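anyone seen this seq b4? input:
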Amino acid sequence: MQIAISRAIQVHLSHARGCRRIPLAAPFLLLALSSCTMTDRSPAVAASPVSVPSSSSSNPARGSQVPPQTRVKISEVAGRYGFSSSHVQGKQIALSGQNNVLEMAGDSRRALFNGVMVWLSAPPVRSWGRWTMIQSDVDKVIAPLVNPSQALRTEGRRVVVLDAGHGGEDEGAANARYRIQEKHVTLTLANAVRDLLLQHDVDVRLTRTTDRAMDLQDRCEYAARARASVFVSIHLNAATNQDSCGIETHVLPPTGCPVTCSVKVTRDDGATCPGNGHDGPNMVLGYLIQKQLVKETDAEDRGVRRSRFYVLKNAPCPAALVECGFVSNRREAQKLLNAEYNDRIARALAKGIMAYLDVVERAQPTRSSAYHGGEHDHQT
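predicted toks r here
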């Protein structure tokens, strides 16, 4: 069975890159892993040579002209982005402002923004007695989360496209014992999220409405034809380690930065994809969805992660791919059989998307509203 599981992992990773999936049979199938579920170890990136500018004239709302891998002093970042107090104890770094709290740890890529886990592209590193971080994390993580309205000022709110992962002969992750197939659960969730969004007059479309196969490219092309403003791909997770559990939301890494599960920058990481045109909005969308999912389900927070999945690279608009739980974990598999729990997942996805649309609305006050929503949490 271990051999079959190993082959299943390889097939899923190939499928994520757009290759054709090969059907496999095993007593307990694990056919769809996210890019980062093979280990729960916190990846670390080797520190690059440090260059710490003494000051920055860039407007924090517009981002910086400093090269993305340049290291900048965290103390200066705190001042620029409204963190009025900072506390450092050993490797633990905490920045606090009127509305936001950012917690980081030296030599770790894990961070917490207002209590929600967000993975950095590189860990903070101490240099010349000062903690530093790379400029890319300042521009692509801190800036959009602290000032989401600025990050979304050019984004639209016309159409939301929901992508139910897998379908047809591609069943996705499966748990034979509990008779769970990812393709069925994702379609159920997508339909439920659509119904909730329709209650707020959101124009929402589904890439598939039946149990049918659909190429990854076709999903992106469908979103482009629909003139999508938001693309959310819904999936379930699986891992060889059956203790792995929780919810994670994936967005595209910035150009030149590694995926969350890797410690190396590869040739693929150096390519600029269509999705990189929405780096800031991607982070805002991913964060708001992850925030609601963790709040509604009380599942383990595995964070907003970076992955180069095909649909994230090629989406024509801000995009996120959500892994709503592990079918390989007994407890989570049992929850996914519960209609009430799935309703909570759907409600969280809808709330996260609505929170994003609310920020877009506030960022563009002169445009007429494309929907009439209720009250939502305006704080990121």
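Residues 339-363 form the longest helix (25 residues). The domain at 71-146 is CATH 3.30.457.10 (Copper Amine Oxidase; Chain A, domain 1). kinda curious what u guys think
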